[in-house]
Amino acid sequence: MASLVEALSMFGLEEELTCSICLCLFQTPVTTPCGHNFCLPCLEMTWMEFEEKFSCPQCRASFETRPELKKNTVLCRVVEQFQISQDGLSKGTCEEKREKADSSPTEPRSPSPVVCDSCLVVDATKTCLTCMASFCQEHLGPHLESPAFKCHQLVPPVKELQQQKCQSHTKLLEFFCQEHRVPICCFCLLSHKTCSTTPLKEAKEAKELQLKKRLTELSALNDKTAKSLEQVRTQQKQLSNTTSRKLDLLKSEFLQTLALIHEEEQNSWKKIKSEEKRVLDKLEFVHTVLGKKKNEIQMERGEIEVILAEMDDITFLKSNKLRQISFSDVFVPKIELDQNVLGAVHQKACHLKEATKRFLNISREESIKGAFIYSFTYWDGFFSVFTYGLHILFQLYFATQFTLDRHTAHKNIVLMEKCTKMSVTETVQDYKQHPQRFLSFSQVLSFQCFKKGIHYWEVDLENNNFCAVGICYGSIPRRGPESRLGRNSSSWCIEWVNNKVSAWHNDKDTCLPTSKATKIGVLLNYDGGFVIFFGVTEKKIFPLYKFKIEFVEAVYSAFWVFSNGATISLCQLKS
User: Fold this and answer.
1) Which H/E stretch holds residue 460?
2) What is the pLDDT of residues 482-499, one digit of tens each?
3) pLDDT category, 324, cuts 50, 70, 90?
4) Which of 158, 169, 324, 490 is 20–30 Å from 187 (CA)?
5) Which whole-number Å values give the CA distances from 328 to 285, 287, 290, in the listed order?
6) Backbone angles phi, psi at 566, to 5 degrees
């Protein structure tokens, strides 16, 4: 009997030594001004939510300022003695439970856990829909042990529990109104007595079934859409490949047409020049004959004037016996250009132009709906030999951008404007050694190479003297006399030296007519096997020279500058 009384007294003491916040024995107990005791960590955590007024968690007494909390040493010793008397079977402190919860590897904490409504510290493990509160494992004990709570409905922790209550009756929402599509409580059934209502769980299951069915339909539709997208993408690729091949064929056809026109122009030019030479030779012969006759006449006049000046009669008469030369009348034959030759050449060019115009007009009318064919309307001057329309054609279809390769530049070459402009200087540049660098001549190659297709680029020449523009293989020598552009079998170029323009290849040159053009265009047809150099002005483009080449390696654009005042700049063409 005495032991029972002692046990009851110990139970009452334990209640007095238990923190009302964490429901554990005090750890570092402190006393508020109103006289209630709490664990220091529990009270500080509770007051962290307050900024101005602070209150006692037990009696709700308010404090204007935050009280200064000091450890209650007497109460602390009482707790220690009580724990010793319990033989180490105390329930443990709140701090130990926190550490245990933090160190538990099997219970991962949710990003925003539901806190126990009793202690406001430990995470809740269950929510009671009857009590409308959440409890941790410690405070869930009565619901699990007491028969009075057996009928309470326990569920996993629920956030925002107030949303589970009816706003009108503060009762649990247990039913769902099908007509109004809202959850209702048992008291709401009276106002919804004419409506079709089902338990909330059944309504959820029905909705889940409906959504799962919809999800299955959407999945099937998504798979079908994905297949359709793949088919469309395949069609796009096939279309792009087809048009790309057609465009390549189209470029080749037009380039061949240009080559034919260029050849016809050269033949016509040679015919007119040949006729000019024939007439000039005849006129030169007549001029020589007339000049000789004029000299003889002047000589005869001089002799007669000397005789007439003689005063002695005998001497005069003797001189009069000199031979007399008879001169025929001056006759200049009619020498003219053969108008039949000139007319035939001109007529052929006109017929070619008119036939081309008619053909293009017919083609435009037949394919006016095609945007690509319609773009031919910009080529009105296309077949007027080498007019500016040709320049537009080159830029539209063949324009190529590239930069200069610093590793190939001679040490007296200065590269500027992001390696698109070059000049020569007497100052040796601080370039690193590289096997591709030119060592004997101030030359540089492009960084990009060309292995196929048609390409067109332009360069600006400032003070175009002692410079060259051309192409070469990557295997061109880098040192010695044979490394200069045009002085080997691996390079082709147009060169300007002392106002003399020449085409160079394999150490052989061809003199070209001088030109005032300061911009040079280069048209490379790798597959067609030729390169054409053009002079470009504001109003026209004209050919300088054409090399026919059977390419066997990748081709690079190549440049040489020797004069200090000369610079070469790559033009930025808009394709």
Assistant:
1) strand 454-462
2) 999 999 999 999 999 988
3) low
4) 158
5) 18, 16, 12
6) -90, 140
